[in-house]
Known about the structure:
By secondary structure, the chain is an alpha+beta fold. The chain is built from 17 helices and 21 strands. It has helices at about 40, 55-65, 70-80, 110-115, 135-175, 185-190, 205-210, 215-220, 265-270, 280-295, 300-315, 325-345, 370-380, 430-445, 445-455, 530-535, 535-550, and strands at about 5-10, 15-20, 25-30, 45-50, 95, 230, 235-240, 245-250, 255-260, 350-355, 360-365, 385-395, 400-405, 410, 465, 475, 480, 485-490, 500, 505-510, 515-520. The strands form four sheets. The chain has a nine-stranded antiparallel sheet with strand order 6-7-8-10-11-9-12-13-14. Strand 1 and strand 2 (about 15-20) form a beta hairpin. It starts with a strand and ends with a helix.
Amino acid sequence: MDNLLFYDIEVFSKDAFVVFKDINDKTLRIFHNDFVELSDFIKGKTLIGYNNYFYDDHVLHAMLDLKTPMQLKALNDRIIGGERLRIKNYKFDSLDCFQQIDVSMPSLKKIEGNMGKMILESSVSFDIDRELTKEELEEAIRYCEYDVSMTIDVYKQREKTYFKPKDSLVEMLGNEKGKRWNTTTLSANVLLKKPLVKWANIRVPEDMLELVPQDIADMWIFKDKGNITIHEFDNEIVFGFGGLHGQNMKKKYFENVHLLDVASLYPSIIVNHNILGIATAVYKQILEERIRIKHIDPDRQAALKLILNSVFGLLKSEYSLLYNPKASTTVCVIGQIVLYDLAKRLAPTCEIVQLNTDGVAFIPHNDDYKRIWKEWEQEYHLTLEEDVFIKLWQRDVNNYIGLSPDGKLKVKGGDVNRYKADAVFKNNNARILDIALVDKLVYGKDVLDTLRENTDKPHLYQYILQAGGTYKGTFDQDDNQHNKINRVFAAKEEGFCLYKKRHDGGMVKFADAPVNMYLWNDECDDLKGFKEIIDLNHYYQIINKKLERWL
């Protein structure tokens, strides 16, 4: 911990500075226009920023070379303009909290909003073509310090789940250059030193292809995309080039549901069918070691899990050593076939509730399913793990709520997956919708009661609005400009609304946002009089529309 420095950089026409903090959020040093002592200050440290691999690391290198503010501004403009820069020999070690954070690639401001924190954007324009005044400089530094504080928070949330496993991968690779690589690149290089030979066709055993209708097998053999839907054992089942999907079409509520999930489905298929060729043996060793140390060495097992889970995606990545699209399709096809075969075997003795990528949910009529379970495992050399739900609500195969005998809930899908926790790095808009929907279905709690009882937690009702880079910015109905990212709530009072402004001046509504808004970009906990501000009817109407799809 002592060797970590968290940092952020701001560059203006005549002013440039970098702020450094320790992990306890203490500001250690600010370098402003004078970088002579910078090299000694960061020596032996690991620097941590947010999106610093794209921007800050490049500027910091220039600061270490004692470039002037004018030269730093020219570099800044090149980077912001989209030029991709490369540094051959890095003068420091660094980690980027933005790396692989989420496919939505959230900005730091978006995360601030999601967490209910103050969304702070400096009012000091980066277009100022003079030295900053004392007041402007102080404000810009405060803004920078706040961003460093938020970077520390993000790092702490990702330390165990990302950075420690990544450290283990770098150690396994034995190459210090790997510190800057993402975990998927590290995983590929741990397994291989040169690219796999790409297959011309899928390699699915003929006897397995015979287990599905011929038109489905033909689709996989002769096409690269598409899907085919069949109806069997009261389920609508979709075969394609992703995971298997099937759902019961007769009802949406079930009791005494058993779920048999395949443990490590894709990794097991990769091993059983020699998908990686010469690298399969190494992959198998990793799989076996991960199982052996799962409860002994959490950091190393997490790194091994990253390798195991990364490989399937890497088979489809043209920039990876593992790129082999037909091998990827082979793994996916085998997974669909074995799950479909499990469902067919279970169907005579069970009511099939759903089929998903790696499992089958069903209601057993007797104990015959246990015999089928073991026979299937022996035939396919796969392992099934059982979950039981005393109740299960299912909107579709991708949205369901399962209530376990011990009272715990398993929630999956866009309607409910934020029930237990904030989606800090994703879309955290109006999380109260998920909470009220689940509480209504599972516990019969009135929606309005849930809405009223949680008004002491304003961030549950927030919408985080962001105007993307293709827009001029965020403006209100009177053409006043606001932050690029803003927090709003559905408001009782009419009249105020934010829009995205196009470069031609046209105003565009934010999708799914309330018509009447209350703007609050400070800390959510500091918002007073929330009960009088919030329009609960807005949320009530949305929840009821969602409930219709579940009942």
